[in-house]
Amino acid sequence: MIDIATRISPAIAPAISETISQLQNCHLIANALVPAIAGATLEVMEPATGQIIGIAPAAQAADVARAVDAAAAAFPGWAATPARQRGKLIAEAARRLAERAEITATVLALETGKAIRTECRGEVATAIDIVTMYAGLATELKGETLPFDPQLLTYTSREPLGVVAAILPWNVPLVLMMLKIAPALVAGNTVVVKASEEAPYATIEMARWMAALLPPGVLNVICGTGRDCGAALVEHPAVAKVTFTGSQAVGELISQTAARKIIPVSLELGGKSPMIVYGDADLSRVVPGAIAGMRFTRQGQSCTAASRIYVHSALFDPFVAALREAVAKLVIGDPLDEATDIGTVISQRQKAKIESYLALGERTAGAKVMRCGELPRPDYLADGLFLQPTIVTGLGEDSPLMREEIFGPVVCVQPWDDEDDVIARANDSDFGLAATVWTHDLRAALRAVRRIDAGYVQVNQNLTIQPNLSYGGFKKSGVGKEASLEAMLEHFTRKKTVVIDMR
Ligand code: NAD
């Protein structure tokens, strides 16, 4: 057992222990931190050490009803608040969240195992950027006048939907929360967030400061398992919309319930994103682009991870050698240590799943599995869920490593010679979330961009989700867009058509 205070700056240690103790065993309902009604709890583990850092409430249907009732009671008042006023409050929330950014980032690093320097501070900053962007879009909740008949005044108006359920995973909980709640709140909806049971604290920490500026019940957060809490939330009759990020299997279940209730649903379900490197590409840019794209500093736990890299055969060997060398230099270690590039994966279950894919790769004839870098040595990290970033070559296109979302630090690299063939291979996936193309030949880049079957395509770069870039997948990667004005208008409002006879 090692005291967390010895691993962080003395300047912030008291604030972290105070915050973690305030966040013990609580939902956020109507601006109060409350335990589960039936008293059931879940343990929250620090993946870097295996220590239990606290408990979270395990919501049952009664807790879900309490949160939804609070959101439903707050809805009429919030919907009637002028949009500019809602935007002002949300903008003020962004400023308050920025004041606590370091505390939030540290809590996030503790509960997710993601490195504070390379991941958590950036996640908090992006989450706040998203809030700021949506606050400024409050006055864009406009309708249109329709040129139907000169004797009639015909227009549309945008209205909020009601209570929105926002269900989060553990990999980037703060950014994913803000992509959902910021547009929902600005548009006049009230929200019940279902935090990930594996990483609930940073979510509640951010939400409580935001909620404190809003009328009670406008923003609520509950915690529990998917089965008891998430499913009950989707089922609740007063929930008018569900927005979800997570696995395809759960996305299907939520869609079925939403279809039965006839309510709209947005789904972000992951990917197996291709990165196509042409023979003229500049390796000094492609290699860092591959590391960033594969989200190695997040242990590959990203829905947009560039997990299938197709490299022109002229560059294949030098690319693999350079990637291997560069990845091996990344420091795997304590997520709270400023020297660390890569922390842990989230859970023993995810670690075992990733290792089973690596074992399959090692059993595959012709495949080469290259584990890079060094696992951390300190005794206090001995039970940590660390994995080495791994490059796999020599697989068939039908290998599960090529087709399934591993959600770990495993990248498959394949050679190609023919453009038609590589684009067909890139598109031969159930997923269609993201893709990147690396070439200086503008015509080749534009040909590829046009033919790639994915919702977010980049050339010569590999950004993650950015405020104002409409984001969402094709095929089994999901339904709907996030991060943009369009996302707020299309997914968090309903449109009313009004016709007034002026004769
Ligand atoms: P998950 O889909 O099991 O859980 C995501 C969220 O949904 C959690 O809050 C969970 O409690 C909730 N949930 C689970 N069952 C539910 C149900 N029946 N009804 C309503 N809510 C329910 O994902 P996970 O366990 O966090 O990760 C499993 C896999 O999902 C990963 O291996 C990865 O492939 C994928 N994943 C994708 C993303 C992404 O960004 N696309 C993020 C996280 C996980």
Instruction: Report low-confidence residues grouped into runs of 5 or more.
Output: none
Mean pLDDT: 97
The molecules bound to the chains, other than polymers, are: nicotinamide-adenine-dinucleotide
Estimate the helix proportion, in percent. Answer: 25-40%
Query: What order do the strands of the largest sheet run in, or round the barrel if closed?
Result: 13-14-15-12-11-17-18
Counted by DSSP, the helix tally is 16
Provide the β-strand percentage band: 15-25%
Please supply descriptive tags for the structure shown above:
single chain, 503 residues, alpha/beta, 7-stranded mixed β-sheet, 6-stranded mixed β-sheet, 16 helices, 21 strands, globular, binds nicotinamide-adenine-dinucleotide
